[in-house]
Amino acid sequence: MPLNHPDDSYTLHTDLYQINMMQTYWQLGRHDRKAVFEVFFRSLPFENGYAIFAGLERVVDYLKHLRFSESDIAYLRDLDYPEDFLAYLKDLKFSCSVRSVKEGELVFANEPLMQIEGPLAQCQLVETAILNIVNFQTLIATKAGRIKSVIGDEPLLEFGTRRAQEMDAAIWGTRAAYIGGADATSNVRAAKIFGIPASGTHAHALVQSYGDDYEAFKAYASTHRDCVFLVDTFDTLRVGVPAAIQVAKEMGDKINFQGVRIDSGDMAYISKKVRQQLDDAGFPDAKIYASNDLDENTILSLKMQKAKIDVWGVGTKLITAYDQPALGAVYKLVSIESNDGLMQDTIKLSNNAEKVSTPGKKQVWRISRKTDGKTEGDYLTFDDEDPRQEASLYMFHPVHTFINKTVVDFEAKPLLSPIFEAGKLVYDLPNITTIKAFAKEKLDELWDEYKRDLNPQAYPVDLSQKLWDHKMQLINDVRKKVAKVKTY
Ligand SMILES: Nc1ncnc2c1ncn2[C@@H]1O[C@H](COP(=O)(O)OP(=O)(O)OP(=O)(O)O)[C@@H](O)[C@H]1O
Ligand SMILES: O=P(O)(O)OC[C@H]1O[C@H](OP(=O)(O)OP(=O)(O)O)[C@H](O)[C@@H]1O
Ligand SMILES: O=C(O)c1cccnc1
């Protein structure tokens, strides 16, 4: 049994099979063959019409520090990897090129979100961590986008840390939630390290510890400004709200009474009553905060019931992506250097036509109308194709080809930007405010049909004719090859 080792690098944050494949490649002299891998998912999470890409910043940090530490090597030695292979790992320097969609960009199924190109063994090593990061952060950013879409301009506060899948998920989930739609977080560490607004009220424990709403609010108000009182510990309408009002009246401007939070009961009914109580007491500007297992469905329902809620605190269901706990992005080999030194595109077949991978190193182009910037769809090409040179684009569904359109007067923007070139970081990471604003701008450019929460239209992700023909050719080649194989 190996001894414990210090946790001083993320390089072994990978699956054992990656190291095993690296060993095979290295021992048989294949490790430095040039390879291209692409990250994509096959279906959108939550049956949403779009996903919000997040995770690049952490991927960059991970790749920047990708070296096997002494303790990594020592641990692999414990696992009996041979010394010459360990010597190769010890000296390994990340030398891949990486292109990626920007954080906050809207992304769709079956298009490359990231592309890793370089020595086969290195590309293989980084698969697990890249998927781990991108799958989680993109999932949470998308969930936040869904929730924010029903809330509109009212603030969405992220309250989930206590229910998150441990500390990393709380921190990076908070960041992703902020990119996707949250306006502030209760997690002080996340707020501190990322520059996200921190926000919060107080817990039931405060009221319980005083055993009395009035005493508790008074105590809190004597030590804080901008007070929001949690009014549902004993009885919201009879005790909680009257106590909040009394303290607000007594303390006046000294506490800058912001409002009350309700965290239980029928929130449509109660919020209307609370609104009446606050208005009657002369506090029409006091806000009503709500929390308690909220998500986009309960919030939409509360809005339909004309609940008088101004600020929404959402925890568990956002930070854990409760209704879909994982995004299924995959990392697939699309091209590999063959024995003659030329790049050979690869394909993975499936009985399901939608699941057949698209071969070759690609670029994704977002096609939009010049007139109003609204999106027409995404268009996948070989990396050396440039739709900006075309006067019109024939866009057709890659499986149901009878669904097609010809687009003129369009703009085409490439979505994959260079992040690393031969191991060197060439991308200036934007700050979080810029990323969040970018996500909002992209959502504004998307048609409402793709944005609705329930049964959105399928956004077109089409292939250029050249790419489609190549894919069909490879499918036929593989089929012919398979047909020749003798069955036993
Ligand atoms: N008017 C409403 N319409 C739709 N959903 C609501 C409404 N009011 C509350 N909810 C939601 O109903 C769910 C359950 O509320 P429930 O009444 O069981 O909790 P509770 O009264 O707060 O109980 P507990 O004190 O155990 O938390 C919560 O997710 C809450 O957000
Ligand atoms: O419901 P969520 O969307 O997950 O939002 C977070 C929840 O965390 C708190 O409850 P908790 O019972 O943990 O603490 P409390 O005593 O302060 O209510 C808060 O009151 C919310 O109900
Ligand atoms: O500040 C709050 O009201 C808060 C923080 C975390 C969880 N629930 C509520």
Ligand names: adenosine-5'-triphosphate, 1-O-pyrophosphono-5-O-phosphono-alpha-D-ribofuranose, nicotinic acid
The fraction of residues in strands falls at 15-25%
Number of E-state strands? 21
Adjacency order of strands in the biggest sheet: 13-12-1-5-3-19-20
Contiguous low-pLDDT stretches (5 residues minimum) are: none
Counted by DSSP, the helix tally is: 16
- Radius of gyration, in Å, reads 27 Å
- The quaternary state of the protein chains shown equals single chain
Q: End-to-end distance, in Å?
A: 42 Å
Largest sheet: 7 strands, antiparallel
> In percent, how helical is the residue content?
25-40%
Nearest-integer average pLDDT: 96
SS class: alpha/beta
* Shape designation: globular
SSE layout:
Layout: H1 16-27, E1 34-40, E2 51-52, H2 56-64, H3 70-78, H4 83-90, E3 97-100, E4 106-107, E5 114-119, H5 120-151, E6 156-158, H6 166-180, E7 184-185, H7 188-194, H8 204-210, H9 213-221, E8 228-230, H10 236-251, E9 259-262, H11 267-280, E10 287-290, H12 296-304, E11 311-314, H13 316-319, E12 330-337, E13 343-345, E14 362-369, E15 375-382, E16 392-396, E17 404-408, E18 410-414, E19 417-421, E20 424-425, H14 432-445, H15 448-451, E21 461-463, H16 465-484
Parallel strand pairs: 6-7, 6-11, 8-9, 9-10, 10-11, 15-21
Antiparallel strand pairs: 1-5, 1-12, 2-4, 3-5, 3-19, 12-13, 14-15, 14-18, 16-17, 19-20
Helix pairs in contact: 1-5, 2-5, 3-4, 5-6, 5-12, 6-14, 8-9, 9-10, 10-11
This protein binds adenosine-5'-triphosphate, 1-O-pyrophosphono-5-O-phosphono-alpha-D-ribofuranose (PRP) and nicotinic acid.
